[in-house]
UniProtKB/TrEMBL annotation:
Residues 148-168, 725-754 are annotated as: Disordered. Keywords: Coiled coil. Residues 250-303, 340-367, 405-516, 562-649 form a coiled coil. The keyword Coiled coil applies. PANTHER family: CILIA- AND FLAGELLA-ASSOCIATED PROTEIN 57. InterPro entries: CFA-57, WD40/YVTN_repeat-like_dom_sf, WD40_repeat_dom_sf. Residues 148-161 have a biased composition (Gly residues). This is Putative WD repeat region containing protein. The lineage of its organism: Eukaryota, Sar, Stramenopiles, Oomycota, Peronosporomycetes. The keyword Repressor does not apply.
Amino acid sequence: MLKEIDTATGLARNELWVGGSGAALGPLALANSQQVLFVGSAEPGRPGTVRLYRLPFEKDHPLPTTTLLSGGVTTSPGSVSPTAQTGSTLAAASAGTGSASQAYTEYHCHDLPVSRLRLSFDNQFLFSTGEDGSLCIFETQNVIGKGGSVGASSGPGGGTVGSREARSDSMTLGGGGANGSGLPFAEEILVTKSDLEEKNRLMNELKSKVDELTLHNEYQLRLKDLNYKEKIKEVSDKFTAELTQDRQRCGDLQSDKTEMENEYQKKMREMAATHRSEIQELKTTYEAKVEAEKARYAALEQARGEQNTRFEEESHLLVESHTQFLAEMTTEYEQKFAHEQELQAVCEQAKNELIATNEALKRSLEEDAELEVDELKSKYELKLSDEREATLRLKGENGIMKKKFSALQKDIEDQREEIRSLEEKGKELTENIRGLEKDIQGHKKEIREREETIQDKEKRIYDLKKKNQELEKFKFVLDYKIKELKRQIEPREQEIADMKTQIEEMDAELEQYHKSNAALDLMIGELRLKMDGMQKELSLQATQVALGKALVRQVQTDLLGCAQLLDNKKALKVAVMALNKKYEDGVTPDAKEPNSQAEYNRQREYLEKEVESLKRKIMKGMAISESELHRLQRENAILTTQVNELRREFHNVRMQTQEVRDAKYKSTLSIANSAVNKKLSVSTEVMRERKEKMREAEFQKEHILQLKARITELQKTLGGGLKFALSGSSNSSQHRQQQHRRPAPPAAQRLPPV
């Protein structure tokens, strides 16, 4: 329901019923002319629209028939059907008999209900906002002034002003209002005078800054050109001197080369003569030795034939006695063998269990060994690459000598092979004789040993059963200790991981400090260059001032001369004309001097301010870096002590676990020996364990040395960084050279894993 109330009487003139249209009305906006009313729809869950009503409301107006469009909008017969985006022209009637009916124009502008409606101060624009966050701007000048209808300037989601094409569309779509004229889109954007003044002021400031920067950059470029020209001269002089020295050195080396070639040729001739004489002597000696060996070989063959006949007789007798003894022994040992088979079946079960445990231990040992092998492989591959390069060099040098020496060596090797073949034949005969004698003694010893071993094994079986029971008790105790040790190790490992993260963070902080120190050095160097340039400019200005003073004195003297001629007008005129001609050429540059002087003064003030600000920044940075470096040193000392303590505890726990594993491993080996009844030597295992312990000890020593080196490097870098920051303002060029020689920052060198 809309009511039109007279403010003078306080009574309602007309009432307009809007409930039939199915829309709930929300915010209102009334024009200053009080002829147009704008109403926004506020029905939740439906798109927001803006309606335009003409005032005053028409009372007792006949209701037109309504029709439903495809978009769900009703229109009067005299209205124009709109499109989907711009809105629609509707006619609504009241439900009662005494209410007014009014034609209105409706525009769809938001996806959600309208929240606010406002008219501009000059009634030219209407602003509507919706709950979907969109802003629509309508141009209302034609509607309020001439009685036309309104045209939307943006769609449901838009908040921008429309173009001329959109304005033409709104004119056609919004033509179903009271007078049939649509409201065009707005093209103007409101900008206050203060914004324009601020922008102009910013433009002027930026232009002045650009001029200052261009002057500053030109000055810097001139200084750099001068410095680079001086450096080019120095470098060219240095390299010309080095070229002359290198040419002289090359001539000296060529002369030395010719002398060395002559000397080595003489030595090669002498060596060839000595080799020939030595080869002849060796031939004569080896021929005599070969003849002596042949005679001795004939004598040995005769002795071997006699010994063969004698040994054949003895072996025949031994075989007969041995067959009888074997028949007796087989009957005895068959009975024992059956008994041993029963024991073997029992032992095989125990053996299978032990094999499973041993395989698990073997896998763990193999994994550790593979890791060590990979580390050693990477280490020794580097050594191999270095050695290969060295060998390639040596091969190139020795290739020439080998070719000459190989011919002589082949002859010597041929003679040696003949001698070796003769010696090997003699050794084979002696070894056959000794082997037969050892076989006879071995058979006798085996018979005695087997009798003794049977008795020993029976005793051992009884002892091992007792030991097995004791070891099972000991195994239960050791398992409990291992679990407790594992519980103690886990928090220590977490602490070690936390310490590593802290060390990495400290490394990152140190990198930042080094970078800040380097940046400060560069700034100090630039400031020094600026100061040198300013001093040069000051010297130039001092010379200009001296010249100006001299000119002033000269002008004063000339004016005094003219003042003396005041009585004689003709002479005065001649003197004044002469002065004019004399100083006519020097007027224009003197006129420009004040501007240049002001420019120089402005540059000097700018540079002085910049130097003072940079000095303050440097002092602040130095104070901060000193405090941070002291803090890092304290934290580093605390961390090193904690790391050392944790490493000692970790080493002790590891040794305890190793001892427990050794005890378990020894117990399993003793059970396996008792079950299988074999003599296994434990010496190899002990040696292996000792080697592993030695490796661990060496690895721990290497870790300790690396950590000590790391601590010393950190201390050096921290101390060096502090000195670097303190002495940066005095000697920038020296610190640049030191910075080139200084090693990389400590963040690049990570601590090895514990």
